[in-house]
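re the bet — no i am not wrong, look at it urself. input seq straight from the record:
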Amino acid sequence: MTHDNQFKNFHVQIGELSELDMARSELADEIRHMIREIILTRTSPSAVRSVRDQVRQALQVLTSGEHSSGREISEAALGPATPSFLTRSPVVGAVNALAVPLTMHVVQEGREAIAEGRVTFTDPYEGPPACVHGGFIACVFDEVLGVAQSASGSPGMTVNLTIDYRSPTPLHQELIFRGWCESINGRKIYTRGTLHHGTTLCAEATALFVSLRPEVYDQLIAMRDDPHRHGGQT
C-alpha cells in the first residue's frame, strides 16, 4: 500500500504527551543529569560502582516490561501526524536521553517559515576546552534545517549538509539556531541556517534535502519491520 506523502508529517507534533511519555521524559531528564555527573564526579571508585549496581537493578524493571514491536515503532516514527518522532528524536526528543536539551518552534508555515532552536550545551557536549563539540552543532543544524524544510510542504531527507564554523561556540550559554528554506527546485529543497551566541555568529550551514517519494516511504517502513532488508534511493 502506498502512503500519499505521509512523510510530510514527520516533523509535526500533534497532541499532548501521554502519561507514559511524560514518565519516560522525566526519566530521560534524570539520565541526562547522571551522564553529566559521570563525567564530572571525583568520588571514590567504590561509590561509582555502587551507583552502577543500583542502575543495573533499576534497569531490570524496564527490561522485564512490555516493549514496542518493530512495526509499532515504524508506524509511530514514520506514519501519519503523531507526536512520536519529535518525542523520540535523538536531537530534540523528550523521551530520548541522547537528545540535547533543545527547544524548537516554527514561525509561520510554507516557504517563508523560520525554524528556531534554543539550547544550552553542558559538559557532556564539550569539544575544545569550554566549547561545544562541532559534531553536536552539525547534529542540531540537521534537525533545525529539517524542521524548516518540512514546513515547505514537501519535505525530504538530508542529501548534503555543509557547515562553516565562524567562532568558538561556548558551553553553558544559551545558543540560538535558525533555519529557513531558500529555494525549491522540483524535489530539491535548499536551506540555510545560522547559529548565534548573543550577537556573535558561531556557525553557518547550508543543506540540500530531496523530497521523499511515496514508494521510498514504503521501503523505509519495510526496513524498520525487517532490519535485514535493504532500501532503495530517495
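see?? The first strand starts at residue 102 and ends at 107. told u. also The two ends are 18 Å apart (CA to CA). so pay up
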